[in-house]
From TrEMBL:
Organism: Roseovarius litorisediminis
Enzyme superclass (EC): oxidoreductase
Similarity comment: Belongs to the short-chain dehydrogenases/reductases (SDR) family.
Gene (UniProt): bdhA_3
Lineage, highest ranks first: Bacteria, Pseudomonadati, Pseudomonadota, Alphaproteobacteria, Rhodobacterales
UniProt entry tagged with the keyword Ion transport: no
Highest taxon of source: Bacteria
Identification of the protein by name: D-beta-hydroxybutyrate dehydrogenase
Length: 255
């Protein structure tokens, strides 16, 4: 398979770092950005072959500088993983602060807009490429106590479908991966926030997530990377505009 040029946002930890490592193992060139400067430095130390830059996806100037560097060094990009996101606040909508709502929407939706806008410009000129968004099963179901997160992730579903229509005629594919509950620190923070908002013990919530999935299991970053690598391969050349859940089949997110 031809070596690909892969750009990943929020690529210094969690799902993004898992994607970066798997693309690199396949032999691809990898560029990552992340708002966490310390995490970026660690990744650069472990993977000096990566392009690694501190950049907040909601900062237009920082994202422009990151894409400029990638375009200057590589001349283009083949895969852009718009992966950055945040869990946002937990609570009934009447109890949420506007600033917390807006911050969640800003990272999950507006940050993805900035990433996809620049990716679309580059790929339209090339006449090829894959934009891969990270949405969530929260973008497929109602999600009590997590309205800003659900609203943002549903927005990404609409963005995926629309960009696939806009860019398909020039040979660019756009898809989204919808993870379920992913093992790791981020999900532990989500459980803690939901526990504080609902008054239910963390372990009860953990079991509720498991019971709401047909396979009765969470997923891990390798499960998501397997899907990303498939979608970026020639075997997926006719797959576009799709929301592909990697979640063990979520039946409900309602407690």
């Amino acid at each position: 398979m031809t070596t690909q040029r892969v750009l990943i946002t929020a690529g210094a930890s969690g799902i993004g770092l898992g994607l970066a490592r798997r693309f690199a193992e396949r032999g691809d060139r990898v560029a990552i950005c992340d708002a966490d400067g310390d995490a970026v430095a660690r990744v650069q130390s472990e993977h000096p072959e990566f392009i690694a830059r501190q950049a907040d996806v909601t900062n237009e100037a920082q994202m422009a500088a990151f894409f400029d560097r990638v375009e200057t060094e590589w001349g283009g990009v083949d895969v852009v993983c718009a992966n950055a996101g945040t869990g946002g606040p937990a609570g009934r909508i009447e109890d949420l602060e506007y600033d917390a709502w807006a911050a969640c929407i800003n990272v999950n939706l507006n940050g993805t807009f900035l990433t996809c806008r620049r990716a679309a410009r580059m790929m339209r000129r090339q006449g090829s490429g894959l934009i891969l968004l990270t949405t969530s099963t929260a973008g497929l179901f109602g999600y009590p106590l997590r309205s800003p997160y659900a609203a943002a992730k549903w927005g990404l579903v609409g963005l995926t479908k629309t960009l696939a229509m806009e860019l398909g005629p020039v040979g660019v594919r756009v898809n989204a991966i919808a993870p379920g509950a992913v093992e790791g620190d981020r999900m532990e923070r989500v459980l803690a926030n939901e526990s504080a908002a609902s008054g239910r013990p963390v372990e009860d919530l953990r079991q509720q997530y498991v019971k709401g999935v047909s396979l009765r299991t969470w997923v891990n970053t390798d499960d998501l990377a397997d899907m990303a690598l498939f979608l970026s391969s020639s075997a997926a050349s006719k797959i576009s505009g799709q929301i592909l859940a990697v979640d063990g089949h979520t039946e409900t997110l309602v407690p």
